[in-house]
Write a structure and sequence with these properties.
InterPro entries: 4Fe4S_Fe-S-bd (IPR017896), 4Fe4S_Fe_S_CS (IPR017900), ARM-like (IPR011989), ARM-type_fold (IPR016024), HEAT_type_2 (IPR021133), PBS_lyase_HEAT (IPR004155), QueG (IPR004453), QueG_DUF1730 (IPR013542). By secondary structure, this protein is of the alpha+beta class. The chain is built from 17 helices and ten strands. A hairpin with a 2-residue loop joins β8 (about 205) and β9. The chain starts with a helix and ends with a helix. The protein binds cobalamin and iron/sulfur cluster (2 copies). One iron/sulfur cluster binds near residues 155, 188 and 248.
């Protein structure tokens, strides 16, 4: 069989196994990306979750000898939740970003890439392949951009005309000289809605992100959330979708294609208060299958406390006092102290005064003082 014919069969097979888009790119070094990555590092705009070795990130031949081409894949995920529960006073809810609504996409995409590898190996015994999704060295977006999956948009996401930006990306480096696809023209035009709507001004200029200011990143950190961002996080427990939900290219892209990515509303939009006391075992059992649980329960619990403060949820005060008095983790005690000040009930004030006398951790003491200061401000007002 000739290669052109095989490439067509591969595309047809990809669609059969639930790959929504496939594209082919050369495995030439990614020179532009290299400059962008170095610049991002110099500006301290990176999140720290990226592979630090810029050479590995931009030279596919370092990852697979004889690398000739890269196969890029995209799988769409839903943007609309059926029967989404509404939070009400006494039963407030948080939200996971759409990318973390269903089954963990790492497993779902790897499964498909493994099937593709087997398909290729059966036809090309001399094929050499290396697949990756998210945690690999390459920039999944730079590969997708080169392979014509979508354009690299101002909100930094790859946007596909078919599914908007609600797509997961993955790729396979191969030694097979597939015919490359053409990259797609930019379709953002003069629009700048994402830049203007981003709650923290994290999109510095079209296509460039200061990840240190991005709420998606901030929801995934394990320490105290810097004060500046505490009022901005809202009820987000993991990730942030604002620059995608405002994007006109995502209008009418419900993408309800793969049942495995359909959210369980009680997991994707969970009640906040039960999260405060959830055990490790229960957390793993309930949230372990979504990608948003990868940092463990602490960041989610810290964000749940901030969400309760955002709602000024007085009914949560006893649970927050309990955390302040007895949680082992300083980040949780301190964030609870801040939240009690923000919510502003008498019980909260009394508990802060009480704990102020005994708390030994310096950072928690600072948070207690911030909590108390909210009451002082309230009295002045
Ligand atoms: C680190 C990381 C993050 C960090 C930093 C994100 C960022 N924009 O750099 C944080 C935690 C903030 C993050 C958030 C999210 N992420 Co993320 N993340 C990654 C990861 C692991 C590496 C990204 C990276 O290297 N960033 C460094 C920048 C420089 O590289 P890049 O974004 O890949 O580069 C492209 C553009 O940014 C642009 N560019 C870069 N610099 C500049 C400068 C100028 C001037 C211009 C014009 C362009 C430009 O060019 C590149 C090619 O398109 C990738 C997986 C991977 N291995 O690639 C997933 C990945 C990018 N994330 C993904 C997703 C889904 C998200 C979220 C939507 C999740 C959410 N809902 O919260 C948000 C989106 C936030 C946003 N606006 O980017 C998807 C993207 C899917 C898509 N359609 O684009 C990926 C590919 C995971 C996957 N395999 O599906 N993420
Ligand atoms: S994910 Fe949220 S915080 Fe990050 S750039 Fe988009 S809108 Fe801004
Ligand atoms: S909101 Fe506008 S500028 Fe931003 S990514 Fe969408 S189309 Fe591009």
């Amino acid at each position: 069989m000739n290669l052109d014919q095989f490439q067509k069969e591969l595309v047809a097979y990809a669609s059969e196994i639930g790959i929504d888009k496939i594209g082919f790119a050369s495995a030439e070094p990614f020179y532009n990306l290299k400059h962008q990555l170095i610049r991002q590092q110099q500006l301290n705009y990176q999140s720290g979750f990226e592979e630090p070795d810029v050479e590995k990130r931009t030279r596919p031949e370092l990852l697979l000898n004889e690398a000739v081409s890269i196969i890029a894949i995209a799988i769409a995920y839903p943007s609309k939740m059926k029967d989404a529960p509404q939070g009400v006073r006494g039963a407030r809810r948080g939200i996971f970003s759409r990318s973390s609504w269903g089954r963990d996409y790492h497993a779902a995409l790897k499964e498909r890439l493994t099937l593709l590898e087997a398909f290729i190996a059966a036809h090309y015994p001399e094929a050499r392949m290396r697949s990756m999704v998210d945690t690999g060295e390459l920039s999944d977006r730079a590969v997708a951009e080169r392979a014509g999956i979508g354009w690299s948009a101002k909100n930094t996401n790859i946007i596909t005309p078919e599914f908007g930006s609600y797509v997961y990306l993955g790729e396979m480096i191969t030694n097979i000289p597939f015919q490359p696809d053409e990259p797609m023209e930019d379709q953002c035009g003069d629009c700048r809605l994402c830049i203007d709507t981003c709650p923290t001004g994290a999109i510095v200029e079209g296509g460039q992100l200061n990840a240190q200011r991005c709420i998606s990143f901030l929801t995934q950190t394990k320490g105290f959330l810097p004060d500046e961002f505490r009022d901005k996080i809202g009820n987000r427990l993991y990730g942030c979708d604002t620059c995608q939900t405002v994007c006109p290219k995502n209008k009418r892209k419900a993408n309800r294609i793969h049942p495995e990515f359909e959210p369980d509303p009680e997991i994707a939009k969970p009640l906040l208060e039960p999260l405060l006391k959830i055990s490790n075992r229960e957390f793993k059992g309930k949230f372990g299958y979504v990608s948003g649980s990868w940092r463990g329960k602490k960041p989610i619990q810290r964000n749940a406390i901030l969400a309760l403060a955002h709602f000024k949820e007085a009914d949560a005060v006893p649970a927050l006092i309990d955390l302040l008095q007895s949680d082992e983790r300083p980040v949780i005690r301190g964030t609870a102290a801040w939240a009690l000040g923000k919510i502003g009930t008498i019980e909260g004030l009394e508990s802060l005064r009480e704990v102020e006398k005994t708390e030994k951790d310096e950072e928690v003491q600072e948070e207690i003082q911030k909590g108390l200061a909210f009451f002082a401000e309230g009295l002045k007002g």
